[in-house]
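Data deposition worksheet. Section B asks for the primary sequence of the deposited chain exactly as it was used as input, without tags or linkers unless they were present during the calculation. Section C holds the resulting structure in token form. Section D is free text for depositor observations; keep each observation to a single sentence. Incomplete worksheets are returned to the depositor.
Section A, Depositor: J.P.
Section B:
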Amino acid sequence: MSRNKTCIVFLGPAGSGKTTLTHRFSYWLSELNIDAALINLDPAVRSIPYSADYDIRAIINIWDIMDREKLGPNGAVIRAAELMEVKSGEIVKNILNIDKNMYLIDTPGQMEIFLFHRSGVEIIGAIRRHVKAVSILLIDPKTLISPVEIVVVELLNLIVRLKLETPTLAVMNKFDLITSKEIIKMISSRKILRKAIRGISGVQRDLALKCIAILTNITPVKTIVPISATTGKGFEELYGLLHEVWCECGET
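Section C:
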């Protein structure tokens, strides 16, 4: 497998816009004459807006699991994750056999299952041994209501990087819905974020400042990129950052 091939893994909580971004970003890439493979790894999704080159529901579907094993939705999602782990070799082989130079992977809405269960770690681990992979963590701006929440997002971004062993970018989707200019400033500058945190009282302030110090040591540059999956705003900056990461991995 050529190491010139690249892979983008879209992660995020339910409703953050992973599927929409997978769809819209693939369309945006097509205008650059980049034909990306679209991969759906969510066995619980009812429908997707794109034509998948590989769809996990062909072999693992939680609706079938619920009927067959008499499980509720939550139990079926966990069972699906177990089956994905068992079939991880088959899944990875089918993905890598797709004859395209870029893979866009749409992951389950229940991010914690994919990230903290062995299935997601094993699948992405096997893929990144063959292609250069980057993870993108999608954040809903409605959750960014305070400077502390921004720190939490950056820590989650670090956890994704640690678990999947991939370079990771945090992306604030639907940023066009944000009305607070202060939030925009804080996600754009750690200096402004640090100043805002100092205005908080108590243990929360001290802990957040310590976390910022750790984050600055590990990732000195800003890691939250504002985009809109609906309008495509921010895609050019996002692609530029992705290309920088791939170049650091040896792409020419």
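Section D:
The chain has eleven helices and seven strands.
The first helix runs from residue 18 to 30.
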